[in-house]
Amino acid sequence: MSDPTTILLRNARLVLPQHTSEPASLLIQDGRIAKILPAAHAPRDTQTVIDLSGQTIFPGFIDVHIHGAVGVDTMQATAADLERVSQFLATQGVTGWLPTLVPAPSRDYASAIAQISIAAESNRGARILGVHYEGPFVNSAQCGALRTQFFRNFSGPADLDDLPAVASSPAKHLITLAPEVAGGIALVAELRRRGWIVSVGHTRASFALLEEARAAGAHHLTHFMNAMAPLHHRAPGPVAWGLLRDDVTCDLIADGVHLDPEILVLLLKMKGAERLTLISDAIAAAGSGDGSYQIWGETISVKEGRTSNARGAIAGSVISLLDAVKLMLSLGATEVEVAKMAAANPARLLGLDHDCGSIEEGKRADLVALDHSGKVSLTMVAGQRVFDATTTDY
């Protein structure tokens, strides 16, 4: 049964775009934030009142880089499997996500996109917003855990024919590439012509080549500092480029493994919360604990929250975006900064910031309430309760 069309979330701290409010109330009508009201105010026509007793409401988190969770790998998932992931993500405060695909044969891309398209139309829980292709146009010297046998160069538009788009509308299409692959700059231009969002990653590109990529339309970096050439005083490369260019944004895996916590603090200080996006880069093992898992054709081990493949490389993470949020808060980031990194910035990256990503009147009621211990108590997508800790035992 659907929730009533008018809901009042009462007596909650609100993480607004510029400040955190004293206890207030949110009036939700037809899936959108209608008004921000004083805590004690209750309009007469309110059909449901939920008293949050001073809990904190953030805009719903958006994860633009996630390979799976709860035993589900996006490369092999059915639409029902993807729905399971969406429901799990809702328990973690995530209201939107991009299933992320790794380099693979064309038939695997086709089957994955077919299932994502079905799930995007009908899924419950966190919304599927489109797809993220991590590769295949990336540098084998910075492969990380990706399978190099499926990497490729770009010779013309036909090389994109087997990277299908998600059929649901509207769907967002993000791709991570290395501009130094053959035809890389032309690839950036062609993808932008098609309306795709281009991110640079798994790269050793020079600063000069990255400037060409920027001019062609690449303005984001995937899992910043991971799977890219490190900063060197005579070869600045992608790290210096990302730090220096104000129109280039970066996403971070804030799990304390991919980046040392002090590096996270440094990046927040240098780049600023306005230009950083938190991602999970979670794999199918997320939410399942330590152990060994068959993922992407190999065994990936998880021990004490750290993943590794047979080569000893880190193979994604097992965190949720909620874990990243908690870590950044523990490192001194403010709630407003974290809301930008986990919601507003990914919404802007995807071109959805007019509709979601912040708590503002008129925007979708994509919201997460955290209780006084930091646990998710309530998650809403367009005003619908997709997780309620008082009624759900996940």
Give a nutshell description of this structure.
The protein contains 8 helices and 22 strands.
Structural overview:
With 394 residues, the chain is an alpha/beta fold. Helix content is 24%, strand content 27%. The strands form five sheets. Strands 1, 2, 3, 4, 5, 20, 21 and 22 form an eight-stranded mixed beta sheet that branches. Strands 6, 9, 10, 11, 12 and 13 form a six-stranded parallel beta sheet that branches. Strand 9, helix 2 (106-122) and strand 10 form a beta-alpha-beta unit. The protein is globular. The two termini are 19 Å apart.
List the helices and strands and how they pair.
Layout: E1 6-14, E2 24-29, E3 32-38, E4 48-51, E5 56-59, E6 61-66, E7 68-69, E8 72-73, H1 79-91, E9 94-101, H2 106-122, E10 127-128, E11 130-134, E12 172-177, H3 184-193, E13 197-200, H4 207-216, E14 220-221, H5 237-244, E15 249-253, H6 261-271, E16 276-279, E17 291-295, E18 298-303, E19 306-308, H7 321-330, H8 335-349, E20 367-370, E21 376-381, E22 384-388
> What percentage of amino acids are in beta strands?
25-35%
End-to-end distance, in Å? 19 Å
SSE string, helix = H, strand = E? EEEEEEEEHEHEEEHEHEHEHEEEEHHEEE
Tell how many strands the DSSP assignment holds.
22
Report mean pLDDT, rounded to a whole number. Answer: 94
Number of helices: 8
Helix content: 10-25%
Radius of gyration: 20 Å
Main structural class? alpha/beta
Q: Globular, elongated, flat, extended or rod-shaped: what is the shape?
A: globular
Q: What multimeric state do the chains show? A: single chain
Major sheet characteristics? 8 strands, mixed
Uncertain runs:
none
